[in-house]
Amino acid sequence: MAEDYLTAREAQAYLKIGHNLLLKLRREGLPCIKLEKRVLFRKSDIDRYMESRIKPFTPPAVKRKKRKATRS
Hints:
Distance between the termini: 79 Å
Oligomer: single chain
Order of helices and strands: EHHEEH
Radius of gyration: 21 Å
């Protein structure tokens, strides 16, 4: 079975992200293949990388107002 390779523009469209975010993901470990000046991404590598970044939802902490001390 042939592997699907995507150009940077195709990878951006596939992930629905912009150029700068794709560059950031590459710096953070998104696998890519460099062929001279071209950069290609395997679709399976993108999927695996994105799956590894899934984190469970944790609701934000609720800040409570400090109560003033009352004298009795």
